[in-house]
Amino acid sequence: MKILLTGVTGYIGKRLLPLLINDGSDVYCLVRDLLRVDDIHKDDQNVSFIQGDLLDKKSLEKLPKEIDVAYFLVHSMSQTSKDFQSLEEKTAENFKSYLETTSCKQLIYLSGISNDESLSKHLASRRQVENILQSEVYALTIFRAGIIVGSGSSSFEIIRDLVEKLPVMVAPKWLDTKTQPLAVRDVLSFLNNAKGHTEVYNKTYDIFGPEVLTYKTMLLEFAKIRGLNRRIITVPVMTPRLSSYWLYFVTSTSYKLARNLVDSLGVEIVGRPSEVNSILNVEPITYSEAVKLAFEKIEQNSIISSWKDSFVSSNRLKHKLHKYVNVPKYGCFKDYKERKVINETMTLDKIWSIGGSTGWYYGNPLWKVRGYLDKLVGGIGLRRGRTHPNSLHAGDSLDFWRVIFSDKEKKKLLLYAEMKLPGEAWLEFKIEEGKLKQTATFRPKGLAGRLYWFSVLPFHAFIFNGMINELVRVE
User: pTM score, two decimals?
Assistant: First the structure.
């Protein structure tokens, strides 16, 4: 079977790809930026990565014409309310136009449960995309999912932040909203089992877990599983703006995403029963089972994807990594340091483990202060951490940085700053001629950028010195 997969660098797409490969399918993956392709699939003969942008109709001409099944797994949750609806409509229209020129028999679209009379802008947009994707040329299969629970999912990580940080929560009234959480493994089973299954052609199904729970119940159940005693008090006076700030300051989400989530969280997400479970042989697990399974993955360091690695968590970067690979040389301030490397393997392991729970090897309290300050001015802070303790790929989030280039064999790691700055910043580590070369580059924007650089220069003097000394130190 020949399959076209979109959204392959996203949370669901990255997990679905191995399942499609294991079934023996030939998979064509549409990506905005080839730099974001995981090395693990680059040499797989059954997988082809094609660079294209769904907003650019002409770029889709490079896609194959001979395909059997396509997956549409893209959405614009990260965009502002002013433009995300038009962007989603345009991507759907462009994809449909391309698909109708191919031999595709089935398109599978992952949408959202939208049975409440009052829909959020995002759920209403998903409904519109469903309508656009309808075609007389191919069959459309729509799965409408609610809250997805799994290691690295946005709902899981937000609930985890709230439960583990707040013994007592004074929370918005939307915590009493009903929903039917679904384990990510079950979402993947529905998507995978549906391909080529004629019984689900031109059908729409709600997919959901076996329990109807409130968000409050989900938080308390999560706390119980973690062995934590938590108390939640809901209040009716918290406005959407205050609710957004509450999520933003306590969790690792950006304010933009927090506001979009708050708009959706007041809407009941309860599915309509159907025969889809028996048709596709999927028996969804309970919420508590999904949470326990997620922690098993975390403990085994086997998280395949995380919402934090999506650009949905970014305040600055917009899709194209290659724009930031070539660090500017002119009009910049630089902090360059080099040290002789005694044990190259050890130093590389340290570099590839930097950030997250490991920290930055020197001056960690100051890095945390910088994260807190960033959060206060609307940035992302340090709370995103990292998905894997010692593996980095282009596109991964790393505290308030984004991985732009990562090649351990070439001994080079390049990071781009996503904290709030009056300019742009890069941090590069590379080993050449037996030396570790560490370069912090800052391209200021206006007078504010120049004042910022000179104000932090005294801290750079010992933070960056201490960091490079620790990276080359033999333990």
Answer: 0.71
